[in-house]
Design brief:
The complex is a heterodimer of chains A (about 120) and B (about 110).
Chain A lengths: L3 E4 L2 E4 L5 E7 L6 E7 L5 E8 L5 E2 L8 E7 L2 E6 L8 E9 L2 E6 L3 E5 L1
Parallel strand pairs in A: 2-11
Antiparallel strand pairs in A: 1-3, 3-8, 4-5, 4-9, 5-6, 7-8, 9-10, 9-11
Chain B lengths: L2 E4 L4 E4 L4 E3 L1 E4 L5 E7 L5 E7 L5 E4 L2 E4 L9 E3 L8 E8 L8 E3 L3 E6 L1
Parallel strand pairs in B: 2-12
Antiparallel strand pairs in B: 1-4, 3-9, 5-6, 5-10, 7-8, 8-9, 10-11, 10-12
The chains are: A mainly beta (about 120), B mainly beta (about 110).
Chain lengths: ~120, ~110
């Protein structure tokens, strides 16, 4: 099956710093990648959708200048949390789908803690 | 807009008990329906899916049938195991061009006791 990886799996950073999270499709070309945020004991909230080579489409209420998304290749998308604050602490999950791949395949998630 | 309503948890069962997690949906189009499972500290894994009415998705002893007349996709398992303890998400997607956005239910925490 299709495999999606995320790196890092956990990261702790200080308030005011920026953090980059990578999402990679390992065995298929991901024309579309999705970024989700999940709060404890809650469902996934879609943050943005990115198509390879295009600007990401952000959901209402998500600050695009704070959550920078780059999808420069068919196997890699990155989410950068800029000037992170404790309220940005969360579990971030990416997913990917591709040409001919109807489903979304999810990465294992990244636990971000901002101190 | 599209939405998914799931049975609220948490659900606690003894091993070998029967499981039902209810899921209903509203959608403007003709959705595909999914159940995802999330084990502690991990991302989501697709458990099963159904793409048209009366389809039955099944995997690892879990089943769900796409019921268009009742707009439901209830998850069932005849005999749960401790290893089934996880959070289960019902979801739908409606293809629109290249976008395959998923709409998730709120999730149901299942704990199976030995």
């Amino acid at each position: 099956g299709a495999v999606v990886s995320q790196h890092p799996s956990r990261v702790i950073c200080k308030s005011g710093t920026s953090v980059k999270i990578e999402c990679r499709s390992l065995d298929f070309q991901a024309t579309t990648m999705f970024w989700y945020r999940q709060f404890p004991k809650q469902s996934l909230m879609l943050m943005a959708t990115s198509n390879e080579g295009s600007k990401a489409t952000y959901e209402q209420g998500v600050e695009k200048d704070k959550f920078l998304i780059n999808h420069a290749s068919l196997t890699l998308s990155t989410l950068t949390v800029t000037s992170a604050h404790p309220e940005d602490s969360s579990f971030y999950i990416c997913s990917a789908s591709g040409a001919g791949v109807y489903e979304q395949y999810f990465g294992p998630g990244t636990r971000l803690t901002v101190t | 807009g599209d939405s998914v309503t799931q049975m609220e948890g948490p659900v606690t069962l003894s091993e070998e008990a029967f499981l039902t997690i209810n899921c209903t949906y509203t959608a403007t189009g003709y959705p595909s329906l999914f159940w995802y499972v999330q084990y502690p500290g991990e991302g989501l894994q697709l458990l099963l899916k159904a793409t048209k009415a009366d389809d039955k998705g099944s995997n690892k002893g879990f089943e769900a049938t796409y019921r268009k007349e009742t707009t439901s996709f209830h998850l069932e398992k005849g005999s749960v195991q401790v290893s089934d303890s996880a959070v289960y998400f019902c979801a739908l997607t409606i293809s629109s061009g290249s976008a395959r956005q998923l709409t998730f239910g709120s999730g149901t925490q299942l704990t199976v006791l030995p």
